[in-house]
Specification:
Elements lengths: L1 H19 L8 H11 L12 H17 L2 E2 L6 E18 L2 E3 L4 E4 L4 E5 L4 E5 L5 H9 L5 E5 L4 H4 L9 E2 L5 E5 L8 E20 L4 E11 L5 E5 L2 E3 L3 H21 L4 E8 L7 H7 L7 E7 L12 E4 L7 H8 L6 E4 L13 H5 L5 E5 L21 H14 L1 H4 L15
Parallel strand pairs: 6-7, 7-9, 11-14, 11-15, 15-18, 16-17
Antiparallel strand pairs: 1-10, 2-3, 2-8, 2-10, 4-9, 5-10, 10-14, 12-13, 16-18
Helix pairs in contact: 2-6, 3-6, 6-10
């Protein structure tokens, strides 16, 4: 008799708790399955950047954001459009007050077929001996102003490799000119001609405005591009990218629906599906330029969560765990669950710098990637076999639910993660 009374009392408490508030939304395994099966279908042909199929994927994501009740970040479209150019140099000449300069010492980035440029029209910068050569060069290439960069001669053996920047860079109205060695810029001018190819790209971005902290942003992101059609493997040439990164994109879409149903976020939530991660991270780079970094409170970048982690189910790792206290906050919110976030177990792979979180992290934002991928032994990474049938969708759904729960104190404004110390970044 005592047992029955306790049973009914417990049931009464459950009913009372439910009646006091709205039913909590949940992440639907069925919706997860439908979404990822579409994004990673053969019909999408591997979602290569610039392809008709990735445009179709973008439309699918945008429609999901609209149905969830999100707003565009700007204007009236969920598509955050931008252009990239590829430049094939056909001629180059340069001079200063002392005469002609060896063209092999010059690399000019320009979106224009004809470039006539002089030192008087640009800021001046340097890449000094001992600095991170390629990181500095890429920073100047995307810095948003015309600049002449003098590169220390100690980088002579690597200087020509900067030509890779010509293959993909943002279409802008300003040139960037790299010069090997410390030459006199008095009277310097360069004339360059290029064949220009332009590509139209787009991120997909939706916003759920905050209630009381509207100017503070929490970002959930993933990249929706993959590598398209490739070398056949067992007769299959479509690189579906189910885990990389249809899984992350599916998570972002599910989280958008989840939080839109809750309608209680104090901070503004931004949901971003990035393009061109596989070809240089250009989607996240463009996105980062549309925000003030100090307004970005946290970034949850989600990459390859479709397979079990090295610790098994109900676990994932956070890249750059030690760079902020965000991971500790997330784990504290999960203390009543069976789920565990752990530090990145593959530090030698430099994963913190290899995904779309890196751009905002370099600006000081607590921006981390959440993943389960076993990067030392992942059998389907960048292979045609990366298909939905290789994934554990039930565990993936549990991971998405864990992300939703772990983020609650940051979304509510209760917790604010520490910033990344940019002086310690490579």
């Amino acid at each position: 008799m005592k047992i029955k009374k306790l049973h009914f009392l417990f049931a009464g408490l459950i009913i009372s708790a439910t009646s006091l508030g709205q039913k909590q939304p949940s992440i639907s395994l069925n919706e997860i399955s439908q979404t990822i099966n579409f994004l990673a279908s053969d019909e999408m042909k591997g979602r290569k950047t610039g392809s008709p199929e990735i445009e179709k994927a973008a439309g699918f994501i945008a429609a999901s954001f609209k149905k969830a009740g999100l707003q565009p970040l700007t204007g009236n479209s969920f598509l955050q459009s931008f252009a990239m150019v590829s430049a094939k140099q056909t001629s180059l000449s340069a001079t200063n007050s002392a005469g002609a300069i060896d063209p092999k010492r010059i690399i000019a980035l320009t979106s224009e077929p004809e470039l006539q440029f002089s030192a008087e029209k640009a800021a001046q910068a340097t890449i000094k001996a001992g600095e991170n050569f390629f990181s500095k060069a890429m920073g100047y290439a995307s810095g948003g102003k015309p600049v002449i960069v003098l590169v220390d001669s100690s980088f002579a053996d690597r200087f020509n490799r900067l030509a890779f920047l010509k293959r993909n860079f943002f279409k802008t109205g300003y040139p960037v000119v790299f010069i090997l060695g410390n030459i006199d810029l008095k009277g310097f001018s360069v004339h360059a001609a290029h064949d220009i190819e332009e590509k139209k790209l787009a991120n997909v971005v939706g916003v759920l405005p905050g209630k009381s902290l509207k100017s503070e942003y929490v970002i959930f992101s993933a990249h929706y591009d993959h590598i398209g059609i490739g070398q056949p493997e067992n007769g299959d040439s479509i690189y579906n990218g189910a885990n990389d990164d249809a899984s992350g994109t599916t998570a972002v879409m599910a989280l958008a629906k989840y939080y839109a149903k809750q309608k209680n976020n104090s901070r503004t939530l931004i949901f971003a599906a990035f393009t061109a991660e596989e070809s240089g991270g250009f989607g996240s780079q463009y996105f980062s330029k549309q925000l003030l970094p100090e307004q970005a409170i946290a970034m949850f970048n989600i990459e390859m969560i479709g397979t079990d982690s090295k610790w098994g189910k109900n676990s994932a790792y956070i890249t750059g765990f030690e760079k902020t206290n965000m991971g500790a906050m997330l784990q504290a919110n999960l203390k009543e669950s069976h789920f565990t976030f752990r530090p990145d177990p593959y530090p030698d792979q430099q994963l913190f710098y290899r995904s779309d979180n890196a751009t905002l992290a370099r600006l000081g934002v607590p921006a981390h990637t959440i993943s389960t991928s076993k990067m030392d032994i992942e059998p389907h990474y960048h292979k045609a076999s990366d298909e939905v049938k290789t994934l554990d969708l039930e565990n993936m759904t549990a991971i998405i639910e864990a992300i939703a729960i772990s983020a609650k104190s940051i979304i509510s404004g209760k917790d604010t993660p520490s910033r990344v110390d940019t002086s310690q970044l490579r």
